[in-house]
Fold these 3 entries.
Entry 1:
Amino acid sequence: MNKSCPSPQNVFKSPRYAGGVLAGIFLFLGAAQAQHAHHHAHKHGHAKLEVSLEQGRLSLELVSPMDNLVGFEHAPKNDRQTKALAELQGLLENPANFFEPNKEALCSKEKVLFRSHLFGDAHGDAPKADKGHADLRYQVSFNCKAVDALKEVNVTAFKAFRRLHEIETQLVTDRPGSQARAFELGKRNTLIRF
């Protein structure tokens, strides 16, 4: 047996191989999702979520039409819409408005990134619409000190955003014996289970 490559049972015990395996899985899922997105483009009420758990780091990336979150997808036309965008940005700063890992896992916010062309750009340019469609890309990562105690993440976004109905979810973990899987979340099924 070649000793430079771990057995399939031990692949996740090696950070080098685990990272490579997870990267390969995400490339595969990303290609599949891109092909799926081509056939099922931007749909109101629906969003996509990619979740990964690797070496104590929980990462989530949500892509949603802005209509689900603020009720429109164009540059703000009045004070009410400008206020709605500002309020959304405030909600995005606190991941608990979207995702809550179970408390026993001792997960703390590590990184929060979000962007939409409705927020304008880093140079202070005004928001602009793109062919009548605007999406939010929201990335959150947590460092979980008791990762073995991580059993679930509650997707709290369904409570905060009544226009959001379903989230197509893809989950990949480095836990031994676990496989990448895809499933849908909704207002009555808000838990990502590990």
Note: The chain has one domain: 41-193.
Entry 2:
Amino acid sequence: MRLGGLQKMTLLDFPGRVACTVFTVGCNFRCPFCHNSSLVVSPALPELSQDDFFAFLRKRQGLLEGVAITGGEPLLHPDMPEFIEKIRALGYAVKLDTNGSFPERLKAVLDAKLADYVAMDVKNSREKYEQTAGVPGILPAVERSVELLRAGETPFEFRTTLVDELHEPEDFAAIGRWLAGVERYFIQGFVDSGDILAGGDAFHAATPEKAKACLEEVWSCVPTAKLRGIE
């Protein structure tokens, strides 16, 4: 397990919990709009030791309620279940973020009831998935992860980061048909962190008007869908 950083408190990353967020190093996707590119491609990234991380958690017992695990792609690490078990042993709830490309590892986490909440990225419509994720051949695994979450008992959400150059309202109509009937789906605003994988000024946030048009395309199949981080 490689850890690339720690946000010591968040009220946003874990719904209903006061939490911290820990970042894992490495990702198998190459989304060109990724805002954490140093976690994806930088081997020289300063890392956080597990000893320091768990020392932090022990000091915050009774103050924090949960740990959000994000990346990178957390399930890239085969020892993720053991890592989560150590967090839970200290009394913390766990939220897991994933890109859905490791369905069997996700299934192991779900079957063992290790996660209290899962947030899975849905990068785009099926037709544009590989272009948006930056790698070929990953759609079947993503589809399997969608099925696992929908069939399971763990609370979850799906979310799509809306990038002006990569998404159109008709893409969200297709996403809505794919995810029809789910309880929690969010369209998130793209933010240029200055650490974008593609570099330069290649990608931009969509206008609020376009975001609303995309949301309206989803509503016929997912009437509870919402915008997040878009005013």
Note: The chain has a mean pLDDT of 93.
Entry 3:
Amino acid sequence: MDRQKVILCFGDSNTWGASPSESGVRYPRDVRWPGQLQKILGDAYYVIEEGQPGRTTVWDDPIEQHKNGAKVLPSLLESHRPLDLVIILLGTNDLKARFSLTPEDIALGARRLVMMVTECPVLLVCPPPTDSHAHKWQPMTGAYEKSLGLGEKFAKVAAEVGCDFLDAGSLPRNPTPDGFHWDTDFHVELARAIKKIITLE
């Protein structure tokens, strides 16, 4: 029997499946985008979720501890090996006002994560822009304006390092109550878009 192709989905609360309308509530596994991707790909693939609320690309959060993606990714790459694909979808938490980062800074953080993956291909996914009302949650003050510049910067990084790329901001997305977590329709849209890019033999 052929070995299943193993895909690691490395992300934040949207990969974890946070509801945009009820704090702390998580969508079921088969609703979250990694679960949707598993359903689409079928039994020949094994899709692993590694989503953590609040996770950043490479930054230590002075308020919430243990959120630095760069510090945990090497351990995950080892514990889940052999891997056939790593999907990196981070950057939304980097938009928080307390980090004072530019879109380029955030993209460079994502670049560092991509470069950590040396044994299999990477799909870099740029998170979609937040909604304009995301600032109603104080930590996201200014996030909307900065988020609009992420797609271009992430695309540049992907071209430089030679990995596959998806700008999730190009997909249709409904506004949500908090402005930065996704509704169930977007989880489906994202999984379908990722499926079109995956070309594992």
Note: The radius of gyration is 16 Å.
